[in-house]
# Entry
Amino acid sequence: MRHVISILVENEFGVLARVAGLFSGRGFNIKSLTVAETLDPTVSRITLETIGDDQIVEQITKQLNKLICVIKVVDFQDTPHVEREMALIKVSADERTRSEILNIVTIFRAKVIDVDPRSYIIEVTGDEEKITAILNLLKPLGIREIVRTGKVALQRGAQTLSAPAQPEPVEWKGKTKEKAA
# Structure
């Protein structure tokens, strides 16, 4: 079964290795992986995709929650959500293929972000099927290089995956204390 999992973690050295270690230790491959800071620079969000048995992924999720550096874990499998990934594709372009490449770019609502006398670099964003479809159409025209991001995902609706608010310091009898959340 396919799982897209988002993990909020403390933004510190070695966290990604510990998270990846839980998957590799159980023989699970991470199909895609994206990591970046959140609005709070002390917190990062890891979004990963894996394929595996639901029970084992549930065990991994429970063990992730036990790591001190992990703030929150959400498996989007049964949650309405939006997923996207981005690809940069360098494709050969000459007088004969330029118009066909530009037609494909337009159809997929992609962008040509760099032009060279012998190549274009195309940026496309969408779900995995969209990325695969544009690659299949561009392949016969001469793809030179591809780089893809991992998946990013957000829950639909008002729910968010965010770290609990940190207590604000308050002045109390001349001393600074943290306000209870």
